[in-house]
Amino acid sequence: MTKQINSQPTALAKVDGWPVNVATLDGAITEIIAAAKRAESFSVVTLNVDHLVKLRHSTAFQNAYRAARFVTADGAPIAWLARRANKSVRRTTGADLVVPLAQAAAREDLPVYLLGTTDQVLGKAGANLASHCNNTLDIAGSYSPPKSFNPQSDAADAALDVIAASGARLCFLALGAPKQELLAARAVERGINVGFVSIGAALDFLAGEQIRAPKFLQNHGLEWSWRLATNPMRLGPRYASCAVVLADVLMHEVGGFSQRNWTGSTAA
């Protein structure tokens, strides 16, 4: 039985019609840990421009976002746009969340589960997370699904059943968008009493399988350039789509052009 869920926090700002309702990293940690201690079923998503692209074309992804309890501003453009409506908003990425959330979970004796990427990465990332937590973090289990994994399938339900039975109170999802958000939404729909935090490539960073951009680039909103330089074939087309959508958002939200009429622009 799902525990009583508190209402979704009030939106602090909206970007392209989609809410950001958690202002800072510290605020996200506080809210997420409090919900996990109550053994509630919830999803955490981190809004970036790539997500805006997907939200314009995927009803399933829109529904996953509507099911999310906590939404942070992940991309630098998202944080900047959100700050125009609420100056308290700061960039909080999935990669930023993992270590401090794990440390807070360790302090509160909340077991965590790791799902996604590869078995090798899960092993290394788990060991590094434990080290960051003075080896007091309870990792209740881990699972690396096949590339064909469908987050809306019987196999997904089986994985969610294992997570529910593990005793975990938080699950870090490292499947990439939209799979991780869709799986989190399915978990919430089923009432799995675990907080599902979508974190993208964060476990690969922890395991040293991918190198995150230097802090200078992160702090100046240029992390995308680092990622593009390291993987241009895969990320070039994605970032081209992002540039088109970002230009459209800037024209309408900063330039004051008339309201778009694409489906989802009035999302709650």
- Gross morphology is globular
Gyration radius, to the nearest Å? 18 Å
Give a count of the beta strands, DSSP E runs of length 2 or more.
8
Strand content: 5-15%
Question: Spatial order of the strands in the main sheet?
Answer: 4-3-8-7-5-6
Descriptive tags:
six-stranded parallel sheet, 268 residues, alpha/beta, globular, 50% helix, 12 helices, 13% strand, Rossmann fold
Please tell me about this protein's structure.
The protein is α/β, with parallel strands linked by helices and 268 residues long. It has one domain: Rossmann fold. It contains 12 helices and 8 strands. The chain has helices at 25-37, 49-57, 59-67, 76-85, 94-107, 119-132, 154-166, 179-190, 202-207, 215-219, 223-230, 232-253; strands at 13-15, 18-20, 42-47, 70-73, 112-116, 139-143, 170-174, 195-198. It has a 6-stranded parallel beta sheet with strand order 4-3-8-7-5-6, sandwiched between helices. Strands 1-2 form a two-stranded antiparallel ribbon. Helix 3 packs across helix 8. The longest helix is centred in the C-terminal third of the chain and has 22 residues, at 232-253. The protein is globular, with a radius of gyration of 18 Å. Mean pLDDT is 91; it is low at 261-268.
Gist?
By secondary structure, this protein is α/β, with parallel strands linked by helices. It has one domain: Rossmann fold (3-Layer(aba) Sandwich).
Question: What order do the helices and strands come in, and which of them pair?
Answer:
Layout: E1 13-15, E2 18-20, H1 25-37, E3 42-47, H2 49-57, H3 59-67, E4 70-73, H4 76-85, H5 94-107, E5 112-116, H6 119-132, E6 139-143, H7 154-166, E7 170-174, H8 179-190, E8 195-198, H9 202-207, H10 215-219, H11 223-230, H12 232-253
Parallel strand pairs: 3-4, 3-8, 5-6, 5-7, 7-8
Antiparallel strand pairs: 1-2
Helix pairs in contact: 1-5, 2-12, 3-8, 11-12
